[in-house]
Design brief:
By secondary structure, the protein is mainly α. The chain has 9 helices and 4 strands. It has helices spanning 10-17, 21-30, 48-77, 81-112, 132-139, 143-151, 170-184, 189-202, 205-239, and strands spanning 37-38, 44-45, 158-159, 166-167. The strands form 2 sheets. It has a two-stranded antiparallel sheet. Helix 4 (81-112) crosses helix 7 and helix 4 runs antiparallel to helix 9 (205-239). It starts with 9 loop residues before the first helix and ends with a helix.
């Protein structure tokens, strides 16, 4: 009997890959493994193909996540290789969109470089905020653009009590500058929104810059993990 035809009990397969026997059964039930054979007594019988499947699944997990890795392996074992590859493609497309968003955030920070992104608080006796016309002049757009951005949920100025006029604080002005910079680079509202959310969450441009750098490193690590996982999947398909 060749090595690849060697029969493995559930416990043998579990030990070979460092899992519990219950985990092996769970993975078979989830479709991560091809269906196991059975002895006359009803015991599961595995082979090297099952071991390879588990190792491939483990290689996919770091980059694609457990859910997608499970769906990919299930599709392969159902004979739907095209469907499995479509899941891989979708994961890479989603990662690309994350990179687009990250690049947009970097461009926004570059656009704000050299400017006073966080305006100083008003002095005693001065108005607590700016009117829409003043902000439009500062940012270099028409007031209609600010209204469109507000309708799209990108800006959220306060309202003056009594008159209902829009009142823009320092953060609102900063956000308007970010939107203008990214719109000039042809970014869509859907791509700008997460940039603003990140900026507001970080609290400052410097904090966002640090967050962008950390996120960039994480994306690079995930890309490398996806490449390794895709390579393992390719090898598994080739041996199928």
């Amino acid at each position: 009997m060749s090595n690849r035809e060697r029969h493995l009990r559930t416990v043998d397969l579990a030990r070979a890959v460092g899992l519990s026997t219950q985990q092996v059964r769970n993975y078979e039930g989830a479709g991560v493994l091809p269906p196991a054979g059975r002895t006359d007594a009803g015991y599961r019988v595995f082979g090297e193909r099952h071991r390879d499947a588990l190792l491939t699944y483990r290689a996919l997990q770091p980059g694609y996540g457990a859910v997608t890795a499970t769906r990919v392996m299930r599709a392969v074992h159902d004979g739907d290789v095209a469907g499995a590859l479509a899941l891989v493609d979708a994961a890479h497309a989603a990662l690309h969109e994350e990179r687009v968003s990250l690049r947009a955030a970097g461009e926004a920070l570059e656009a704000l470089a050299g400017r006073e992104a966080d305006a100083p608080p008003p002095r005693s006796g001065e108005p607590s905020g700016l009117r829409i016309g003043e902000v439009a002049a500062l940012v270099g757009v028409r007031t209609s653009a600010l209204r469109v951005w507000e309708d799209a949920g990108l800006l959220g100025p306060g309202r003056e009590r009594g008159t209902g006029y829009r009142v823009y604080g320092p953060g609102d002005v900063r956000d308007a500058r970010v939107v203008r910079a990214l719109r000039r680079s042809h970014h869509l509202f859907e791509q700008i929104r997460p940039v603003l959310e990140d900026l507001r969450r970080a609290g400052s441009s410097e904090a966002l810059r640090a967050a962008i750098e950390a996120r960039g490193r994480a994306l690079t690590a995930r890309t490398r993990a996806m490449l390794a996982g895709a390579g393992a999947l390719h090898a598994y398909l080739e041996c199928g």
